[in-house]
Design brief:
The chain has 13 helices and eight strands. The chain is of the alpha/beta class. Strands 1-2-4-3-5-6-7-8 form an eight-stranded mixed sheet, with helices on both faces. Helix 5 runs antiparallel to helix 6. It is globular and about 55 Å long.
Length: 358
């Protein structure tokens, strides 16, 4: 009877040991990622505040040690709760681990907050953020902690408006922001049509029609019924129409030139929603006469939210396939493009120290 080859006996245990090591490593990465979606190791306070019209509810989350600074998260577009259905949690965990406290709230009419977010202009959203800053100033243990605002996407216009006026914010951060609403809309539509395989002629025709519609939208006599006559097969709701009308002419150029506090702007190099190179250079130019700590950077391989483009580059969260959603859960903060979170936390620690260190 032929004896088994010693070499073969050696190969199989080695193969299975290697496979087990790979599975174990993958499991450890997955479990590590999941930790970024819970906040149990941090102190969390329910904190409500009153804006001009409604009571708004949010969460104040504190790092393990006394915070070096505190940031308020300013939502982008859409009906978001305080944690954006969990999407903000890896970012929040990274900030907390960097010693930075976080305050975020349910948009009006979402979660525990009163009102309707679609009834707010960008300027009104800036005043809402200022009301949040005033409420946080009443927290005695945070009185000497510098407080700043971090605006995501559409929140960039809110941050620029807030920081340019009389405000108690000490620093500002904008991620994936655009300077001009109409220009951003054209870029967004162009990239969507390109991804859908439209020809150059089809794209230019669609953009021309869109520009004409936007010009009408800015006319105060143009109402919802007028809009429905020119809208396509999937029109906006009446409330969404009113929201867009309030904000369609938004341009933060004037606000940005008036800001004197430190400002950081970050864009993902592969952003499909906002033109990263144009807007980053525009921010840099408009902020050049402001604070010496101002920085504007483009993260290589980053998406609109600074995630890794090879896994997560979609214009809408609803477009993400199941495997991309699973990868986000598995990776947690490591779903972000390399250097993105380090750049964010390092700049904040350097340029927003507590007032006791002044």
């Amino acid at each position: 009877m032929k004896k088994p080859s010693p070499r073969r006996n050696w190969i199989f245990p080695t193969f299975f040991a290697g496979l087990a090591a790979i599975i174990l490593a993958a499991l450890l990465v997955f479990l590590s990622g999941l930790e970024d979606f819970e906040l149990s190791k941090f102190e969390t306070r329910e904190l409500s505040f009153q804006d001009e019209r409604h009571q708004i509810s949010g969460s104040l989350i504190l790092p393990v040690e006394h915070p070096t600074s505190l940031v308020l998260l300013i939502h982008g577009d859409g009906p978001a709760d305080r944690f954006a259905n969990g999407g903000y949690l890896p970012l929040i965990n990274a900030l907390l681990d960097g010693g930075i406290a976080v305050f975020c709230w349910d948009k009006p009419g979402i979660g525990k907050s009163e009102g309707d977010w679609l009834q707010y202009s960008l300027a009104e959203r800036a005043r809402l953020a200022e009301a949040a800053l005033i409420a946080l100033a009443a927290e005695e243990d945070l009185s000497e902690v510098r407080k700043g605002v971090l605006g995501l996407s559409q929140g960039g216009w809110v941050v620029a408006d807030l920081a340019a006026g009389k405000t108690s914010t000490d620093f500002a951060i904008i991620i994936g922001g655009a300077v001009n609403w109409l220009r951003q809309g054209q870029y967004y539509q162009r990239r969507r049509l390109e991804n859908d395989g439209a020809t150059q002629g089809e794209i230019e025709t669609a953009l021309s029609k869109s520009a004409a519609a936007n010009n009408q939208m800015a006319d105060k006599d143009f109402d919802y019924q007028d809009y429905l006559e020119i809208a396509g097969p999937d029109p906006m709701s009446s409330s969404r129409f009113q929201f867009v009308r309030k904000n369609v002419l938004a341009d933060s150029s004037g606000h940005l030139t008036k800001i004197t506090i430190p400002v950081l702007t970050l864009h993902g190099g592969e952003d499909l929603n906002v033109d990263p190179d144009y807007n980053s250079s525009r921010y840099r130019f408009l902020l050049k006469s402001g604070h010496a700590a101002n920085r504007s950077g483009v993260i290589k391989g980053g998406t609109h939210s600074l995630l890794r483009a090879e896994l997560f580059n979609y214009q809408l969260e609803s477009q993400m396939p199941w495997w991309s959603q699973a990868a986000f859960l598995a990776l947690g903060r490591y779903a972000y493009a390399p250097e993105a979170l380090d750049m964010l936390t390092t700049w904040t620690r350097q340029h927003a120290p507590s007032r006791t260190g002044d």
